[in-house]
Automatic annotation (TrEMBL):
UniProt protein name: 2-oxoisovalerate dehydrogenase subunit beta
Molecular function GO labels: branched-chain 2-oxo acid dehydrogenase activity
Cofactor requirement: thiamine diphosphate
Organism: Arenimonas oryziterrae DSM 21050 = YC6267
Keyword presence, Oxidoreductase: yes
Entries under Gene3D superfamilies matching the protein: 3.40.50.920, 3.40.50.970
Enzyme class, first EC level, given as a word: oxidoreductase
UniProt-listed Pfam families: Transket_pyr, Transketolase_C
Its EC number(s): 1.2.4.4
Amino acid sequence: MAAITLIEAITQALAWELKHDDSVVVLGEDVGVNGGVFRATAGLQQTFGPQRVLDTPLDETTIAGLTVGLATQGMKPVAEAQFDGFMYPMVDHIVCHAARFRYRTRGRLTCPMVLRVPWGGGIRAPEHHSEANESIFTNVPGLRVVMPSSPQRAYGLLLAAIRDPDPVIFFEPKRIYRQYKEEVPDDGEALPLDVCFVLRDGTDVTLVTWGAQVKETLEAADALAKEGVSAEVIDVATLKPLDFDTIRESVAKTGRCVIVHEAAKTAGFGAEIAARLAEESMYDLQAPVERVTGYDTHIPLFRLEMKYLPSVEKIIAACKRSLAAS
């Protein structure tokens, strides 16, 4: 079995579903002939034809409306927003319609669509191409919000998202699209949605993160281990609905929590986790919850981009502050 990148795992999952489910269609800007700006759909139109892999106009509003319409008529569309900052024209259809069909029809209709979104910074692109806007969508009832952090989880979670009867926003951390490889069996086995993944067991501090920051968080845990600190690392994976039980159980064991995300700090999704810990785990905490995040600015271009993003050093420093608190 050959090792593949995260972007190749996305392609592999899309190909599996197109092959095994005739109701699945893929659509978006340049996803067909050109195979997508990041090559996530490379070769799919040649294999499955232009009626299954559709190039659309450069019009995100139309893409979202078409996707919602297809989903309500028995199809399982997988649309692509070419970049995270291009999602905003889609919000009306996603929030006002896709997220509400189950509620609006008292369960008679659902909206089984996936919106794939290349997400986040770290690729030296302009600010509309480097946003971390997940918290906007975690606040919307009726949406699932999913973000894989490895090739294996990208494959399994995308399969699950396509098969889910409700709309899923599937954020793909583009900084790690080709950063490393894993062996990913192409067996059609989905991973569960709505659960966190405990990537590393620990007893001294809980590190909670998602997306591209999983890599830096694991590296920080490795560095801390050399200093005798046992860090538990949790990949949230499905942000909405949140599997808070896994986080609560970990914090009950460690007594400390550091939350890591690259979105701006104010009202970032880490604030929701911190609030839940204050409400439900106050007496387990031995130190205040720490957050390692981006800044309350738009991501700076090029030279300061990596300074904006959480680093291994910043994560380690937050852990040491937590461990030093009494």
